[in-house]
Amino acid sequence: MNDPLTVKAIERGTVRVFALDMTAREVDRLRNPGPPPGFAFSDDPAKDFPDYVASDDERDPIATLLGTDLADSDFVEVFHTDDISAIGLATYLVEGNGAAEAQIEADRARLDALHGHVVIVLSAAFGGQATTLRPDPRLTLVGCYTEPPPAPVLPLPQYDSAKGIIAGPPVKVVSDAAMGGRVAAVVLLLLFLFVMAFVWMAA
Questions:
Q1: Whole-prediction pTM value?
Q2: Pairing label, strands 117-122, 131-132
Q3: Which tens digit of pLDDT belongs to each residue from 143-157?
Q4: For the chain, the helix, strand and coil percentages under 3-state DSSP, each to the nearest 5
Q5: Which of 45, 81, 101, 168 has the highest Cβ tally under 10 A?
Q6: Which ranges of the chain have pLDDT less than 50?
């Protein structure tokens, strides 16, 4: 992948990792847009949402953060690295998101050294459509990783013993000459019996 911010059409198996510079409150609002349950609005929006930055459109906040109309937040994770401190970000990307272990190993130290909020974006978030990401300045691309290719399907080994079991015992094919000889022998036998019967009756 030449430009990690360029999403190609029908992209599959790519995992993009961003560092997110936001307060805990901003991240909570990002993951749960809208007012909290039971919130009572006042007449002053600035008072209700003192750190809210209005957008010119009504896009999903995740899509707005990534700078694209095509991001499906169902395939985007936003969390703090403390939430996965037991295993570390590098291991989480391999075991939780299917990133190629060889690629992650090259960046393991840098990934595990991250502290703060991160955003993980899977290819499925773009629905197989091409787009270019223009991330919010609070997002910093950390790395772009791919899933390992599927293992090739190998043909089943063929053994002579298995062939015999599957195919059954060999069948001997009788040639036309052999079949003709057998028919002639039967005719001669019947003729001999007929002559013997005729001689016996004449006696």
A1: 0.65
A2: unpaired
A3: 999 988 766 666 666
A4: 40, 15, 45
A5: 81
A6: 52-57
